Amino acid sequence: MFIEAEDITFGYTPEKSILNSISFALGQTHTLSIVGASGSGKSTLLRIISGILPNANDNHLRGKTTINEQTPDEYRKSGKLAFMFQESTLMPNLTAKENIAFPLKLRGIQDDDRVQSLLQTVGLVEYADYLPRQLSGGMKTRVALARSFSTGPELLLLDEPFSALDIAWKSKLYIELEKLLRRYNTTVVLVTHDVQEALLLANHIIVLGKRGTVLHEDTISTDWSMAKRIFDISNYIKTRVYQEHFVPIQKWIMDDGVREITGRSEVDAVLNRITLVAGNGNEEWDSYQTDLLSLRKYTNDPEVNSILVDAFRKAKSLNFRYELMWEITNYRALSERVQAEVFEFYLTNLPYFSAKSAQFYQVDSARLFDTLIGTKINGDRVKFPKEKLWIYLCDMFHSTETDRVLTYLGEVAEGKVEQLDYAFARTVAQKIKQRIEDETPNTIRVA
Fold it and tell me: Per-residue confidence at 99, pLDDT binned at 50, 70, 90?
């Protein structure tokens, strides 16, 4: 891998971290987008990759980052890295042409042909002798983009460079960026808060959460090249692959925001509401999914878990108990008794709940098995407790790849899958496997 980050943790004080255990890898000439809400540490991570935010007296950086087997500081000094910030940061006393040539000048290089070619690429030949104050915001961004490529960078780091531009200018600059990337075979790490932009420009996406953790990772497999996506945005966003990735990524970011802005007093109000409606058997209210979501960062609290379990036992609505189930199983110290209760509830309603879960994953039943293995059991960085992974075995019931599912469940039941090598998961795998084998082909795929 060209870039490898292992367990990156950073903070300005030892007690409070901005980034927590960030790990990822990126191949050469690939493009990675880092998305997330404001304050999630996106720009901080980019600066760590660049080496301009080192471990120092007032910084606390742990973990390891390598770029082409070099430290970020070593790689930056090699001159193969370019960094484009949100602000254009042009030299105010230099013309557009001189700004583009500036990185070359620092190296003692004069290459007028390259500068002229870059001016032409970004459509600014006639503005070559203009000073930054004479240029519009979009023009200044184009100059900064051309300057980033003046040294033919092997790695380009982009920190929300297009955020202040309208859609017309963004579309124009996307096209110019794609041309430059193709010309120089550049590897890119892009920070953006715009999920659509991430899906247009990258095939690898990381979602950072408010606590500086990786909430979700995505790899977009599509035959739409970056150029095709950019030139035909209106049709690309209608494709199934775009929709299947856009909605979950957006939901990760929104859900994370809801969780983080919820205080303990609001949690207590939600818990009181849950207790009341479960006790009355009236579990239908407009915001219960959002209310439950707001509890997420508190579900490892023993008191919160006890209230949720009590409500789960009293509630009569299947959907309400299903939603409570996910919050209950976040608790790391969940007793075997409660875990068994939840499983038996799921098992009793297996066709309905496995289909309901598949809707959340935004994939059809033909691709459900690979999604559960690749992004939930093996690849999910949400850091759910290991003890919760058995739920994904239940969700496999909805998959149409019956033979693969049965083989996998058999391996889990025999203790051959490391992530699921614990007694309860083996029991779940055996029961789900038996249930599938007992069903006829027509009822296996009940939606």
Answer: very high
